[in-house]
Amino acid sequence: MPMLNRQQAGQFLGRIGFVQRAQNVWIAQQMVEGRLFIVEAFLKEAVVKIRIALNLLTRCNQTSVYRYFNEENTRIALGKFAIGPEVDHEGRLLFLSVEMPPGTEEVYIAEESLVLLIGLALNLLKEHYTPIERLFRQGCEAPGEVHGERVRELLERMRVFGREEGGHA
Amino acid sequence: MPNGQLMTNEEVERCFQELGWRWLPGPRPGFWVLPVWNPEQNRGEMIIVDNGQGNPNFIGARLQIVRATRNEDCVRKALCLTNGTLDLVKLYMDEDRDVFARVVVPRFREMFHRQMLRHALGAVVAGAAFVLPILQSCLEDEHCDVEAALRRRLGGDPGVVP
């Protein structure tokens, strides 16, 4: 399959249902788990990015969400869960994005790579939206909760250490 | 993923050559160490590149930034916020609490262009340099305001964020 130039990549997005919103930015809508999501595609000089806003606006510390995001970001090769920029000082949207570096303007990306990025983003959304929403709905941390988590972490480490020590005895 | 042919180690090394990069052999075949200069930190960095060793479908480039010896939740929040700010690079903390910047490139020949490696390495170095002062703030102060640290960083202050 030949590589597309950047313009052809945009045309390909148009053929599969994306609408151009700005220079190098295309959008589409997708229903997943009975909910409507906006899928954005960015064809920039140094990155091809598929981004999906999870429609969850965080306004406070939500450590369990950060932990989940970090665990998954460590596990998956392509794709990342992230907290986006502030929205009108109201909070920050949670995002999922799948990115790949392009080649040159003329040898920009393979059609197959675009299909892969979009498919992977939708699969990640299907797999992770419900658990993320569940963690998100637990709300903000009460003061002292983080400290409590840390104590639990330390106790768990001590238990592991104790088991290891026992194993050597 | 497609059933195309995968880049061999020799082809990856040829790309390094064509890009004018120096490299050192890694711990096993399919791994390389690429010394790069980080102008912001004014120091050399060692990027580990692997050809399908982390995931058979991708060439991976990663750089260890720091080990989060404390305040892990603050570090995780900083990584989530920075991942939402920076393109291409992914920042994560592994189970040993080592924080990495990582980018992957497709390994299939028909999806690959050597320029992708250039973008990937650039994003890894820039991402690591960007997040380091924010992480230092987290490590120094468990009550660090990570969002303020990120705002400062976006404002162009390269120093450690109080």
Helices and strands in order:
The complex is a heterodimer of chains A (169) and B (162).
Chain A lengths: L2 E2 L1 H10 L3 E4 L2 E8 L2 E9 L4 E11 L4 H13 L4 E7 L5 E9 L8 E2 H27 L7 H24 L1
Antiparallel strand pairs in A: 1-8, 2-3, 3-4, 4-5, 5-7, 6-7
Chain B lengths: L8 H10 L5 E2 L5 E8 L4 E9 L6 E10 L4 H12 L6 E4 L4 E9 L7 H27 L5 H9 L8
Antiparallel strand pairs in B: 1-2, 2-3, 3-4, 4-6, 5-6
Helix pairs in contact in B: 2-3, 3-4
Q: Tell me the strand percentage band of chain A.
A: 25-35%
What's the CATH first level of the domain at 9-67 and 89-132 in chain B? Alpha Beta
Q: What's the main sheet of chain A like?
A: 6 strands, antiparallel
Instruction: Please estimate the helix content of chain B.
Output: 25-40%
**What structural class do the secondary elements of chain B suggest?**
alpha+beta
User: Uncertain segments of chain A of ≥5 residues (pLDDT<50)?
Assistant: none
Shape of chain B: elongated
Question: How much is the radius of gyration of chain B in Å?
Answer: 17 Å
Quaternary structure state of the chains depicted: heterodimer
Query: Helical stretch count of chain A?
Result: 4
Number of strands of chain A: 8
By DSSP (H or I, 4+ residues per run), the number of helices of chain B equals 4
Helicity range of the residues of chain A? 40-55%
Content of β-strand of chain B? 25-35%
Mean pLDDT of chain B: 92
> What composes the largest sheet of chain B?
6 strands, antiparallel
User: What is the SS-derived class of chain A?
Assistant: alpha+beta
Distance between the termini of chain A: 60 Å
Q: Strand order, biggest sheet of chain B?
A: 1-2-3-4-6-5
Residue windows where pLDDT falls under 50 for at least 5 positions of chain B: 158-162
